[in-house]
Please model this.
Amino acid sequence: MKLYQHFKMTMGDAIMVVCIIVVSFFVIGEIAARIFKVDSPTMVVVSENEKLVYELNKNYEGINVFGMRDRDFNIEEIKDLYRIAVIGDSYTYSINVNNVEDTFPSHLEKTLNYHAGRRIVKVLNFGVPGYNTAQELEVLQSKVAIFKPQLVILQYCINDTHVCNYIQPQNKKLNTFIYKSNFLVRLW
Model:
């Protein structure tokens, strides 16, 4: 009986030690991430639009002032062109290519203009890695409309109907905390 009580206390002590180690790991990781912080901006930031949860960082390389993976352009420059908006996730964004010119929306634009013999089309890349169908619908309603596209292409992936991998909008404080944590963003 005495041995059982001693074991029970030892097991409780072990659980407490494990909890302290786990919490210490995250605290030390956060401190180290802030001390050795790299000055380059992150690809995504918390969105002011709660339905989007997060969006592309306009200060990230290859992201334009509209928050799209594209070169900067003036809306007036494209008003007479046939505008195609491509909405999707990491496939539309083309996460595995380094240059904006190598994304599939950019290839689509080049191919259409090449076969037309002149520049008549502008393809707008609204791809954001990790977005699901609900977020893509919100992109259509909140971001695409100002460009007045004649055609919208939704790039669908089999996991697009799943619940977003990120914290849901109703947990705004927790969502903001996660995205402000240098360590958690890098760990992810």
Remarks:
- The two ends are 46 Å apart (CA to CA).
- The chain has two domains: 1-37, 44-154.
